[in-house]
Structure formats: C-alpha cells, structure tokens
Specification:
- By secondary structure, the protein is mostly beta strands.
- The protein folds into four domains: 135 residues, Sandwich (Immunoglobulin-like), CATH 2.60.40.10; 91 residues, Immunoglobulin-like (Sandwich); 95 residues, Immunoglobulin-like, CATH 2.60.40.10; 101 residues, Sandwich (Immunoglobulin-like), CATH 2.60.40.
- It has five helices and 34 strands.
- It is flat.
C-alpha cells in the first residue's frame, strides 16, 4: 500500500479496505488478468501543479491505455466507497496525467488509483496512493529581478506562485536563500540570506556576478527549487560625492552611537536614516519608509546617537549619506542593528555592607536608567571575591537576585569583590564592576549586640 502525508494510525483499516476494493476492480472478466497492474503510482506536486505518474512495462504490452480514479478521504476515514473518474485521465496513452483540477483542498487526504485497459480487457486497479497535498508538495522557484545601480546590486524577489490564482502556500511565509558567485572565476559560490527586496553592497565594481534564489519554509524544513541563474555586471558608484564609508555601530547599555569616516575634501553635511526591519519582510517597495534620525540631519560631525529610534524588539537598518549643496552622495552600506544582540552590557553598580563573617551585596543592574535594558535582558550576576592578602584565592558565586549575601567568611578580614551581569538568553556577559574592598565584622561585635 502506498501512502504519503497520511498522519493518523486509524488509516490502517481504511487502507486495507481500499486495497480490497481496488483488487475487485469495476469488472470481472476472464481476460482481465492478462494485463499487468500499473506499478509505482506516485503523485508529484510543485506549488499547485499536481501530477499523477506510474510505471508501465511497454515492451510487453502494446496498444494499452490507462484510466485513473480519485477519492477524497475525510478525517482518515473513507467518505463512502465511491471513486470518481479523474478528468483528463481516462483512456490516456501516456503514463502520467494532471491531477490539479481534481484537488481543491490542500489540507485534506486524497487517494488515487490507476489501471491499464486494452479494448474490453482491464487490469486490476493499482494499490491506492494516499496523500495530503500540503505535506508532500514541493516549493517552486521564485521570480528574481536584478538591477545594478551605483555600484550595488538591487534584488527584487516575487514569491513562488505569485501569478497563480490557486495558492498552495497562502498560509505560509517564505524566507529566501541566495547563492552568488563571480561568473568568470572559480570562486566558491557564497550562500546568504536575502530579503524579498534587498541590496547587495559588498560586490566588486564592473564585475559579472551570477545569482540564483530559493524559497524556504523554516518551520517545516522545506527548501524549494532554485530560480534560473541570472548574471549581471556591477557598475561603479556615481561620479558625484562618494558614499560614506567605514560605518560602524557601538552600543553600550542600549545607548547606540553610529560613526563613520569623513574622507571628503570639501564641506559636507551628513544625514542619517533608519528603517524598521519589519518592512524588509514584505515584497512591496519600502524606499519611502526610511526616516531621518532626530538630531542627525544636516550635521557636520561624524557621529550620531540614534538611541531614541531603537526599541528592544525587532531589528533596524541604518545608513548615512553626504550632501554638498545640491550634490548628494549615494548611501553608505546598510548596517543591521539587532539591539539586544549587538548591545554591550556595562558594569553594574554595587554596594557592600559588612556583617559578622559575611558580606551583604546590593546590585543595581547595568543601565538601570534605560528601560530597554530590562526589556531585553533578565540578569543573573557573577560575583568574584577574595581575601585581600598577598596570595588571594578567588571564589565565585552566582546571584539570582540583586540582593545577595556571601557568608561563612573569616571575621575581621578584608575581602574584595567585583560583580558582572550575565544574560543567559543571549549568552552575553557584561563588564565587571569596580573592585570594592571591605572588612567583615568580628564575631564579638555580634555577641555584644545580643
């Protein structure tokens, strides 16, 4: 019994019943067994194009035609025992036919069977092949358009079946993988994730590059067919003002600073723009969604604080351009900013109070004044402490809360400590606090209080 995408155990009885019914066929003539049963019945699906195929030994059987029936199964149980003739697949002379028009619900179970025919002779039906279209379907290639402008390659991707009325993937969201290589060299092709509308700005000018793109469904670990290979010659940047270069981002405690080089021999001003990464997931043009960073418009210096434009969730893209009068440069390379990932965690603030043979530690999380820090991270704290002696032995403790006590220390001894925040979700360690040294109280002090 052949089956694909059939998820439930209750189907075993249904499949057995179908095999029995298929063996009975629709007629019982004595010559029926002279014709072989079609073998290896399969269904192949790319997007909504559904093809039924089977094998036939044509060397021993001439002048044979084939007919196919299909059946819809509901909830893994037979919807009656009736079979329906497959339109366009009756008395055909080839070993495949189109099943697309018969399948209308891609989440349901379907069953198909095939038999051979020669005049009044009919073979037994093949074993039913049972499948769920959504599960066995393969993803077709996307459509890709390339354009070279000002030294960069612009990529515009349309999803598989974009121009089809019927949609296999209407409830799914694709991500895309691109393979890029130099056309005239033996350079190793490079794989990179790519957005539906994207710019590739790390290519050599005046060089032929080739690309192919595939769609992916990460949730189902499905990779589609690649688009046809396309090649394009990159151009040089415009002869006007060159693009700003060496654009970098530094972030500490969710304070984000953008820096770049000023390599211009004339007076220029700079404009910094940001884009919410949310827009890059869509196929529409988002060029009008770039906004000026407040306080970073027509500035003469090469640093911009864009902290107010960045939240803890999502990601952002930043770019810079230069202007001189009516001359405007091309934009710099886009810098992706994933706030919680690229941010560096500074040192926490630490207060220490001594007790008899113990130290009480109060920790204030790094960047407490910045709400985004607590939205990004849930901190634990690593505490290193040691006796302030000529040969200290460093001990470690982990504090789950901002208040922590180190006990079982020697009374009337000087101890030093420093604290570091740790965000487990990001496997990110912060900077250590300044070292604080203090002396534990004596046991006598505690006895006196009592």
């Amino acid at each position: 019994m052949a089956a694909a995408g059939f998820p439930c155990s209750e189907c075993a009885l249904s499949l057995a019943a179908l095999s029995f019914l298929a063996a009975l066929g629709s007629g019982s003539c004595a010559g029926q067994m002279n014709l072989m049963i079609p073998q290896n019945v399969q269904v192949h699906i790319i997007n909504t194009n559904i093809t039924l195929k089977w094998d036939w030994d044509s060397w021993n059987n001439f002048s044979v035609t084939f007919s196919a029936h299909y059946q819809w199964l509901e909830d893994c149980k037979e919807n009656g025992t009736s079979w329906t003739e497959l339109p366009g697949c009756q008395s055909v002379t080839v070993t495949e036919c189109d099943l697309s028009s018969a399948v209308t619900d891609y989440l349901c179970n379907y069953s198909v069977r095939v038999r051979a025919e020669r005049g009044e002779e009919k073979s037994p039906w093949s074993e039913p092949f049972i499948f769920i279209p959504d599960i066995i379907a393969e993803i077709g290639p996307p459509e890709v358009q390339l354009e070279s402008v000002d030294g960069v390659m612009k990529v515009n991707i349309s999803p598989p079946e974009a121009n089809s009325k019927k949609k296999m993937w209407a409830q799914h969201s694709f991500s895309y993988n691109a393979v890029i290589w130099k056309k005239s060299s033996n350079a190793e092709p490079k794989n990179r994730a790519i957005y539906p509308r994207d710019i590739i700005d790390d290519l050599e000018p005046e060089t032929a590059y080739c690309m192919k793109v595939q769609a992916r469904l990460i949730s189902e670990a499905k990779r589609g067919y690649f688009s046809p290979e396309q090649c394009i010659n990159t151009t040089r940047a415009s002869n006007g003002l060159p693009c700003p270069t060496n654009v970098t981002v530094h972030a500490l405690n969710m304070k984000f600073l953008l820096n770049w080089d000023n390599h211009y021999n004339k007076n220029v001003s700079f404009n910094v723009q940001y884009l919410s990464g949310f827009y890059k997931q869509f196929y529409e043009d988002y060029s009008n969604k770039w906004y000026i960073v407040a306080g970073c418009e027509n500035i003469s210096h090469t640093q911009c604080d864009f902290s107010s434009n960045v939240g803890a969730s999502g990601n952002y893209y930043i770019r810079v351009n230069a202007t001189n009068g009516y001359n405007r440069s091309c934009s710099s390379k886009e810098i992706k900013v994933d706030p919680c990932v690229i941010n560096e965690i500074g040192p926490p603030s630490v207060k220490v109070n001594s007790g008899p043979s113990l130290l009480r530690i109060q920790i204030t999380c790094p960047g407490e004044e910045n709400k985004s820090m607590s939205e990004c991270y849930e901190f634990t704290y690593r505490i290193q402490y040691w006796e302030n002696s000529s040969k200290p032995e460093v001990e470690n403790e982990v504090a789950q809360q901002p208040f922590h006590t180190i006990s079982n220390l020697m009374p009337s001894r000087a101890y030093c400590l420093k604290v570091q925040a740790f965000a487990r979700a990001y496997n990110k360690s912060g900077q250590f606090s300044n070292v604080i040294c203090t002396e534990t109280l004596s046991v006598l002090w505690r006895t006196t209080l009592q």
